[in-house]
């Protein structure tokens, strides 16, 4: 779906749409959309700035950061985004940005694609770290067993050989006390 400047010059654009899983390219393998992405967006042109305001909701399948099992999460967010034409930026070798410039996106040509805006907003709405459950025990670092489902199959050595001198010092200190 294209949000074009020429159309926005005539009237604001109101979009109430549902994108099926696989419709939007998120350009990543880290998650996948498993339910429709329901979107309500209003886009309008103010001077040469495309102003996009909206909200979305969907379900995403991610990987647990500890045990690597798939986890489904509901993701929803609201956004209020200004987009300026990239041609409006000075072509000097070095440009100082003002604080308000860091909150502005840019578009090239006659507008922007709603799918690109939504892909970016879904990425931003994802948690930095996803766990399947709060008490996830993760994987054994030696044998790789999922400790949520099974016991570790490897034998645990008594002490790391690199720490043996420290263990000897500790034993001597205990005997002296």
Fold and architecture overview:
It is a single chain. With 177 residues, the chain is an alpha+beta fold. The protein folds into two domains: 2-125, no CATH class; 137-177, no CATH class. It has three helices and eight strands. The strands form two sheets. Strands 2, 3, 4, 5, 6 and 7 form a six-stranded mixed beta sheet that branches. Strand 4 and strand 5 form a beta hairpin. The longest helix has 13 residues, at 164-176. The protein starts with a strand and ends with a helix.
Topology, pairings included?
Elements: E1 2-4, H1 5-10, E2 13-19, E3 32-33, E4 37-46, E5 49-63, E6 70-85, E7 105-107, E8 111-113, H2 114-125, H3 164-176
Parallel strand pairs: 6-7
Antiparallel strand pairs: 1-8, 2-4, 3-5, 4-5, 5-6
Structure, briefly:
The protein is α+β, with helices and mostly antiparallel strands and 177 residues long. The protein has helices spanning 5-10, 114-125, 164-176, and strands at residues 2-4, 13-19, 32-33, 37-46, 49-63, 70-85, 105-107, 111-113. It is elongated and about 85 Å long.
What brief labels describe this structure?
two-stranded antiparallel sheet, 8 strands, single chain, 177 residues, alpha+beta, six-stranded mixed beta sheet, elongated
């Amino acid at each position: 779906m294209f949000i074009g400047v020429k159309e926005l010059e005539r009237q604001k654009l109101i979009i109430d749409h549902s994108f099926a899983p696989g419709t939007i390219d998120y350009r990543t393998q880290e998650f996948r959309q498993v339910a429709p992405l329901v979107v309500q967006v209003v886009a309008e042109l103010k001077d040469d700035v495309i102003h996009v305001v909206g909200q979305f909701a969907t379900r995403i399948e991610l990987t647990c950061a500890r045990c690597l099992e798939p986890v489904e999460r509901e993701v929803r967010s609201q956004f209020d985004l200004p987009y300026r034409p990239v041609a409006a930026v000075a072509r000097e070798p070095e440009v100082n940005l003002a604080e308000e410039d860091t909150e502005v996106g840019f578009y090239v040509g006659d507008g922007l694609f709603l799918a690109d805006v939504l892909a970016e907003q879904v990425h931003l709405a994802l948690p930095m770290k996803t766990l399947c459950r709060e008490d996830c025990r993760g994987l054994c670092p030696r044998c790789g067993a999922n400790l949520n489902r099974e016991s570790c199959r490897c034998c645990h050595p008594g002490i790391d050989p690199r720490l043996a001198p420290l263990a000897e010092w500790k034993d001597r200190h205990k005997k002296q006390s």
